[in-house]
Amino acid sequence: MNALLSQDRGPYETPIFKNYKVEDYLPALKESIRIAKERLEEIKSIKEPNFENVILALEDMDKEANFVNTIYYNLYSAHASPEHQALASDISAINAEYSNDISLDEKLFQQVKSVYDKQEQLSLGIEEKKLLEDVYKSFVRNGANLEPEKKEQLRDIDKNLAPLSSKFSENVLKAINAFELYLEEKDLEGLPESFVEAAKHAAEEKGKADQYLVSLQAPSFIPFITYSSRRDLREKVWRAYTTKCVEGELSNKEIIKKAVELRHKRAKLLGFSSHADYVLEERMAKSVSKVEDFLENLYQVSRPAAEKDVQEVEAFAKKIDDLDKLMPWDFAYYSEKLKEQKFGFHEEDLKPYFSLEKVIQGAFGLAKKLYGIDFRANSDIDTYHPDVRVFEVISPENQVQGILYADFHPRETKRSGAWMTSYRDQYVDNGENKIPQISIVCNFTKPTSKKPSLLTFDEVQTLFHEFGHALHGLLSKVKYKSLSGTNVLWDFVELPSQFMENFLFEKEVLDLFAEHYETKEKIPAELVEKLKASSKFLAGYASLRQLQFGFLDMAWHRDEEGLKHDVLEFEEMVTEKTRLFEKVAGTSTSVGFSHIFAGGYSAGYYSYKWAEVLDADAYEAFQERGLFDLDTAKSFHDNILSRGGSEDPMELYKRFRGREPDPKALLRRQGLLQK
């Protein structure tokens, strides 16, 4: 029997990855959809539709297909062979057709509408009302009210749209893997020992002894561009990174144009002015004008601060190296040197205190202090790669309340970046709590024969960020899986993750885990003070950079103006107000902007800044009452982390904070506004 369709599971009903073969996916998906459609016919034939036999039946109708897709797409990102990747178009097309078969089924919609219209007589609880509303809205937003001819147009759009995101992602991964720069001893000036060791190890794995490999993977690209004294090589690597997927067989330009065109066409078919209007109907922000006002208000404060930041770095570069003109490939290098001078330390001073093992312990230790949970390694649970580790999450009542997979190192079968995902969301089935199976995936330098995996402070923040998402999934306590964990509005989803990053600037938190990997000494208080002082360094520049991504995303999706121009030409027009350096010909952000063209952030990238306001304000509650104040932590747990999408997010937030978030909290934290 096809392993993906069998009921065989590991401990706690976890997947048995070793049983799943590439050739299993398509047959399993087709068969699981056939099963779902049989159940669909049963739901449609019900004479007296109610919440249980229609809405709850829909929750469970396609559980087999969901399992197949979960395994396929999670491994597509984390561990995909070329054969696995090659299935993406077919699988996306099958899913799009099936999704339309459900959402455009007139008889099924009438069953849902029948329940929705009589909800006042059903005595539904809060979660039941929210689930019913979500299901009904999902049908309407996916074309249930369209005329038959327009339904067919929608089917055609979705069929063409479905494969584009996977192709975009595939091109980015291939482009990153295609770039290799081998260095010799003479090329290593300025590079820290930890980078040199990792680069040598990477070259040896490629059969290049006595050489050093620079790649476009973040653990290689970022330190190289930050520390290499070779300006010519910094430029070469920077140009490779910023021109990937611009031209050639891996170009994403046409994919972008096609995706944007189809998204707008789909939105208009459904009665919206643009894709952004369609997306924002189901966001906290609600409207394009509100998002643009939000971004513009931050821009007005960030732009002048960012200009001062660049001027300061440029003056410093002129002073120490007589640099005639600061270019984008110079900024990280000179800003790091300026930070060293201003604050008396550099990033490499921190790395010995941040071995990956200790940072993991620190994240677990903080979760225990705040929420009373423990983490226990379990080597009996199967994984998809030897690098992946698994932990049981132990509740304060000493019960297993979740499973956490942790996958931390880069490989050629894995896309770049960091993310959290799930193999099963928490829910209740016939009175039994089904525990969540959550995964965090990152790309941190592997340990070498001489050193453990040592993280930069940015990487420590990344781990805590993804762990915050994981806690949102692991601590969920709701009835229905579609309301569970991170199944919340997109501009709320980053609150738990970004919130966790705040703790890393506190000595009492760092003392939980930050110790020198050789001497075992705790991180010195003086170094922590320097870290805190430097955290506001270039805050204007960092803020403006994020705003540029937000403005670019909205420009592609608020109207169809982008379709009138070449991708690079349009991007240059849009980013003019946020650019701090002159545009370098042939470079592009859009062609590698996976968040909006291969992820779920289209017309939603602003949500990072939106959630920053929430997380800064939420953290101020802990600063006011004590970092480990148990009442505050319990309120955050009970009102935010455990509630998922079971209620309106602003109501949940007000229940925690006692009021709406203060927009100035973010500017205060960044040092862009006096307290």
How would you describe this protein?
By secondary structure, the protein is α+β, with helices and mostly antiparallel strands. The protein has four domains: 11-103 and 105-145, Endopeptidase. Chain P, domain 1 (Glutathione S-transferase Yfyf (Class Pi), Chain A, domain 2), CATH 1.20.1050.40; 179-243, no CATH class; 253-329 and 338-343 and 539-604, Orthogonal Bundle (Neurolysin, domain 3); 352-535 and 608-670, Neurolysin, domain 3, CATH 1.10.1370. Helices cover 55% and strands 6% of the residues. It contains 28 helices and nine strands. It has helices spanning 25-44, 51-61, 63-78, 82-86, 88-103, 106-117, 126-141, 148-178, 193-205, 218-227, 231-243, 253-269, 275-280, 288-321, 328-343, 347-350, 356-371, 457-474, 495-501, 507-510, 525-534, 539-558, 567-574, 594-597, 607-625, 630-641, 649-657, 664-670, and strands at residues 181-183, 212-214, 374-377, 389-394, 400-407, 419-424, 427-429, 432-434, 437-441. The protein has a five-stranded mixed beta sheet with strand order 3-4-5-9-6, with helices on both faces. Strands 1-2 form a two-stranded antiparallel sheet. A hairpin with a 2-residue loop joins strand 7 and strand 8 (432-434). Helix 25 crosses helix 28 (664-670). The longest helix is centred in the middle third of the chain and has 34 residues, at 288-321. It starts with 24 loop residues before the first helix and ends in a 5-residue tail after the last helix.
